[in-house]
Structure formats: structure tokens, C-alpha cells
Specification:
Elements lengths: L2 H31 L2 H8 L7 E2 L5 H34 L3 H35 L10 E2 H18 L2 H10 L5 H6 L1 H15 L5 H24 L4
Parallel strand pairs: 1-2
Helix pairs in contact: 1-3, 2-3, 3-4, 3-5, 4-5, 4-9, 6-9, 8-9
């Protein structure tokens, strides 16, 4: 089966679930909207400043975004199950392997988001607000703050899934283990670029807080391939 045919099958399988996913996300967002003030309190956990809004719809849209993020966070195991079931059919991933792909993808996503919230985000916020002074006081928009937190946390959740997709690509023959082993220097370069783009501050400390774990996850992916004897 060629790659084009496999892609068509994956998209066809995803299309079967898209209505259920869309409905669940919509209903969940509506339900969590009423808990958005509590979610905002959690998001402000590392921010000692007050938030302001500069448009009539600003607070409403910020609460909607928080509710949507909360739904994606809660439904992530199911969303990963939908994705992997679609990938499983053309690439013949079945049984316990499929279950492991779903479980570890969800676990790594949660690990990335929690690592971001408790470790990286406080450093980023502290660094950025450190440029303030007596004559330069922060006036932070609720909309921009919510965008900043949601995108940053989701980005960490997604990139932490690197080992799972490394294993998958090796299993289906796209990128063999030898490819990962021979291209460590290029992987390190790409990780450094990714960390520079996704971290909210340009300082080395925050880049290392993302790049360091990412490179360890890259090596973990190679180690898992060796343990599973996937070449």
C-alpha cells in the first residue's frame, strides 16, 4: 500500500468521527464556559497582576477560549484514540500496540502541559514582567494573556509526544531507527529552533527548559526502538 492510499484511508476514517468530535467539543465548551472564571483563576496562578480588557467582547471570547482549551484537555485521550484508530487501519497497528500508542500519547500530552504550567510558564512570565519598572507598569489584556497561556501550554503538550511518533514512523518504515541515530546533530538543531520559536522569551534558560526535555525525549524514542527491536 503506497503512502497516498494510506493517507486517503486515514482521512476517510477521521471523517467518520469528525461529527462526533465536533459535537462533543461544542457541547463540552458550552458546559465548561460556566466554569471559565475558575479556569481563569488557574491560568492566572503565576501572574500577580490584574487583567484588563479593551473591547466589549474581550472577556467573553477569553472565557470561550479557556472553555475550549479545558475541553481539549479533558477529551485528549479520546481524541488520541480517534487519531490512532484512523492511523491503525492502513498501517496495521492492532491490539496491544494500538492501546499503548493511545495511552502514551495522552500521558505525554498531559506531562508536557503540566511541565509547562508548573515549570516553564512561571519563568517566562517572571522574565517578561521583569522589564517593568516604576515608570513602566504592565497593563495586561485578558485576551492576549489567555492566548499566550493556551498556545504555550498546548504547544508543550504536542511536542512532548515526540517519542510516540518516532516509534510509529519507525514501525511503518518511514524513518528507521538508524535514521534517528545518524541525525542526532540535526535533531538537536531542529529542537533548538523549535524551542526558540515556542518559548515566550528569548533567554537561554527558558529555551533549555523546553529544548532539554525535548532532546531527552528524542533519545528516549531511540531507546524505546532499541528495546522493541524496531530497526
Amino acid at each position: 500500500m503506497d503512502m497516498y492510499t494510506s493517507l486517503v484511508i486515514v482521512l476517510s476514517e477521521l471523517r467518520r468521527s469528525i461529527r462526533a468530535v465536533g459535537l462533543s467539543v461544542g457541547v463540552g465548551t458550552l458546559a465548561l464556559f460556566f466554569l471559565a472564571p475558575q479556569l481563569l483563576t488557574v491560568a492566572q496562578g503565576h501572574l500577580s497582576e490584574k487583567l484588563y480588557f479593551f473591547s466589549v467582547a474581550g472577556p467573553f471570547l477569553a472565557h470561550v477560549k479557556l472553555a475550549l482549551f479545558g475541553v481539549l484537555f479533558v477529551l485528549m485521550p479520546w481524541l488520541m484514540a480517534v487519531l490512532w484508530r484512523a492511523l491503525a487501519k492502513p498501517f496495521k497497528v492492532t491490539g496491544i500496540q494500538l492501546v499503548l500508542f493511545i495511552v502514551f500519547t495522552a500521558l505525554l500530552f498531559y506531562a508536557g502541559t503540566l511541565f509547562c504550567y508548573f515549570v516553564t510558564l512561571p519563568f517566562g512570565v517572571k522574565f517578561l514582567l521583569g522589564f517593568g519598572s516604576q515608570d513602566l507598569q504592565p497593563v495586561i489584556s485578558i485576551s492576549r494573556f489567555v492566548n499566550f497561556v493556551v498556545v504555550f501550554v498546548l504547544a508543550f503538550g504536542v511536542v512532548f509526544e515526540l517519542p510516540v511518533f518516532m516509534v510509529f514512523l519507525a514501525k511503518v518504515g518511514v524513518c528507521p531507527r538508524l535514521f534517528y541515530e545518524k541525525n542526532r546533530r540535526y535533531a538537536l538543531l531542529m529542537i533548538a529552533i523549535l524551542a526558540a520559536v515556542l518559548t515566550p522569551t528569548p533567554d537561554v534558560v527558558n529555551m533549555l527548559l523546553m529544548g532539554g526535555p525535548l532532546y531527552l525525549l528524542y533519545e528516549a524514542g531511540i531507546l524505546v526502538l532499541m528495546i522493541m527491536r524496531i530497526k
